[in-house]
Amino acid sequence: MPRRRPDPPDPLILHYEADDYNCLHQDLYGELQGEAVIFAVHHRPLRGTRGVYRVNLRHGVSRIRSGRRDTLGVIFHDAA
Predict the structure, then answer these.
(1) Rg of the chain over all Cα atoms, to the nearest angstrom
(2) What is the phi/psi pair of residue 23, to 5°?
């Protein structure tokens, strides 16, 4: 049986201006996403007393006081 090709990533571009914001939230899709920063948007590793385990990760955009901010998210489907 032929292997199914993964869906291509979906780019997501968001534009923020003064007084715009994005509430703290957790994305339920994708394994990877982001001046430039790259971070996981669903889970992050946390070292505990019994080893490393996954915890939910929430993120957002604080209120823009002046100027503008553009963000780019790349949603990877079926990432392995």
Answers:
(1) 16
(2) -55, 155
Distance from C-alpha of 77 to C-alpha of 5, rounded to nearest angstrom: 11
Q: What is the pLDDT of residues 11-45, one digit of tens each?
A: 888 889 999 888 877 666 544 464 555 666 678 88
The pTM of this model reads 0.50
Between the alpha carbon of residue 69 and those of residues 6, 9, 49, the distances in Å are 31, 22, 39
How far apart CA 11 and CA 67 sit, in angstroms, is 23
Length of the chain: 80
**Rounded to the nearest 5 degrees, what angle is found at the Cα of 42, between the Cα atoms of 25 and 66?**
40
CA distances from residue 12 to 9, 30, 47, 62, 71 in whole angstroms, order as listed: 10, 12, 31, 18, 8
Q: Are 77 and 10 in contact (CB under 8 A)?
A: yes
